[in-house]
Give the backbone structure.
Amino acid sequence: MQVKIFPDHEALSSAAADIIIQLIRIKPAALLCFASGETPRRTCELLVEKSINENVDFSKCSFAGLDEWVGIPPTNDGSCHYFFQHLVLDTLQPQNAFLFNAISGDMEGECAKMDQFILQHGPIDLMMVGIGMNGHIGFNEPGVSVGLRSHVIDLDPTTLAVGQKYFKKKAPIRQGITLGLSYLQQSGVVLLLANGEKKSTVIHEAVEGPVTPQFPASIIQTHANSIVMIDKPAASQLKNN
Ligand code: F6R
């Protein structure tokens, strides 16, 4: 694990976009997996800008959406699907993509489809993830088994409360569907992004706390090729910064 500290969110987003572009130049048919949310939004925007300016072709790559709120339709602009569709798929136009369909009525089937997609196009070359206020990655909530592939999980009270920030009106969220941490362990590169003072406690815990399923993001410490990309405020509680 490396920790890289940037002056601000813009700088870390730009650096993350550069890493993704570098990978696509070396391996055009890479399998990418991104989280949605406030943190990676700017990276996705910059990825599009840079790929146009630098003539980078994403048309051979594949994309897997990290997670979704069970029961929330893709048309809801707070859904992960909406984010992935508008900020990644419409703009970068990868050859293959799979996003969980959270209203399919067969969540186990959706997990199986995702696992099959990754088997076919993977292993994942690069994951770009965020960190929740309870240390979750994707919807791998505290206490999750780290060996899981795609799975459905009851959301932790913190995620239920914080998650409402994505929705214009109160969303009936209860469960998430997500790639498991086994995929993170197997991914070629993992970028964990965080910005802002509000993330400083969870970044300290993830990077300098014990590695434990009670704090899922701590698994980042065990990945040989992970980069924790944070701005100065998010780094403010690190002892070794
Ligand atoms: C969303 C996801 C979540 C977020 C995390 C941080 O697809 O996987 O784990 O990455 O909750 O969210 P933001 O970036 O909105 O603070």
Notes: The radius of gyration is 16 Å. DSSP finds seven helices and ten strands in the chain.
